[in-house]
Design goal:
289 residues, 2 domains, 9-stranded mixed sheet, 6 helices, 22% strand, globular
């Protein structure tokens, strides 16, 4: 009888211990599901005219509000995006400790118009971005003009898509020049994590385009990941680093109401994939310290 009572007592103890372990596990899971994280980025505005925090509102809103609210993997991440004009990049020195990623904005001015002091400021911004991408290994995403700027920063060349405007220097993009506009189908060139949830290689996906100039010579160490029938360098990356440039606009088109054409949802997923990479990179970098 004594042995039986001890066995029953032990069973009670084991039951209590298992119950405690289960409670701790459930609490841990709930904590992970509800825990809030931060991801702090800097948006570098590449437009030639004076700084204007409202100019990049669509892109900022997509990254800070729309994509995190619609993509489950980002639900518990609070994303911020500070504004910085390219002319202020060198002076600001950028707070490297608090900055988790960089976005290079679209712009609407031909690159040859960045002359004099503006040209010097642009060159200084190129040097900073090169260091951020390679030395500091910060995640960088260049969009449209930001994609072209990224190529220029590493020694690539950019010129008009339209060959009749190649080597000419208009003050504004000519309306009669050939350009890549609207919904365009891209084809993958090789596999990459940026295509997660979009397309397996070889594959195709839809994006929104709006550009007169293109990357003519892809600089080292970038590789091209996607192409279109009009413009070959559509999505470039530095292998092994979360540094990307998109000739297209991943922030556009996928949330428009009353759509009468296929939805370019690849843009939303691509932004989400980049932000996930930035988040993983932030935490892996902290773990190595």
């Amino acid at each position: 009888m004594v042995g039986l009572r001890l066995n029953r007592g032990m069973r009670r103890v084991l039951f209590v211990l298992l119950a405690c372990v289960a409670v701790v596990a459930v609490v841990g899971i709930l904590h992970k599901l509800t825990e809030r994280h931060r991801l702090d980025g800097v948006l570098i505005d590449l437009e030639l005219i004076d700084p204007d925090r409202e100019r990049c509102r669509e892109l900022r809103d997509a990254i800070v509000r729309k994509v995190p609210s619609e993509v489950l993997a980002l639900k518990n991440i609070d994303i911020s995006l500070e504004y910085l004009h390219f002319s202020q990049v060198e002076e600001s020195l950028l707070n490297l400790q608090s900055m988790d990623f960089v976005v290079l904005s679209p712009q609407g001015t031909p690159w040859h118009m960045y002359r004099g002091q503006a040209g010097l400021k642009l060159d200084a911004a190129k040097a900073v971005v090169r260091d951020l991408a390679v030395k500091e290994r910060k995640p960088v995403l260049g969009i449209c003009g930001g994609h072209q700027f990224l190529a220029l920063a590493f020694g690539g060349t950019v010129d008009f898509i339209d060959p009749k405007w190649s080597g000419r220097f208009p003050e504004k993009y000519p309306k009669d020049a050939i350009s890549e506009q609207g919904l365009v189908q891209l084809e993958t060139v090789m596999d990459d994590p940026i295509f997660k949830g979009i397309s397996a290689h070889p594959g195709r996906f839809l994006v929104m385009q709006s550009h007169y100039e293109e990357v003519k010579v892809l600089p080292e160490p970038f590789v091209n990941l996607a192409t279109s029938s009009m413009s070959s360098t559509q999505l470039m990356r530095i292998p092994g680093l979360p540094v990307y440039g998109t000739a297209f606009h991943p922030e556009r088109g996928w949330d428009a109401p009353n759509r009468d054409q296929p939805e370019p949802a690849a843009g939303k997923q691509m932004l989400a994939n980049f932000l996930e990479m930035a988040f993983d990179h932030k935490h892996s970098s902290r773990a190595k310290r």
